[in-house]
Amino acid sequence: MNLTPNEVLIISLVALIALGPKQLPEVARKAAKGLAQLRKMSAQLKSEVNTAVDEVVEQSHVEELRRQTSASPQQPDDDNRS
Asked: What is the pLDDT of the chain when averaged over all its residues?
């Protein structure tokens, strides 16, 4: 989320008017903690999804190799020739 300095100023003024100077610091702290927690949870979820996708891709590669191996005819060994 990219805010311009003017947008930050307007949001700050509205918050100051709505909450008052006494409540504003506490609300800002709680909001910052909430955002930090949300970012942490988002990063964890992203990591878990990436891990799951990697596992599925790896499993599909293994299955494809098995199909190719079972579908290809067996080559005779050189040692068994007379």
From this structure: 88
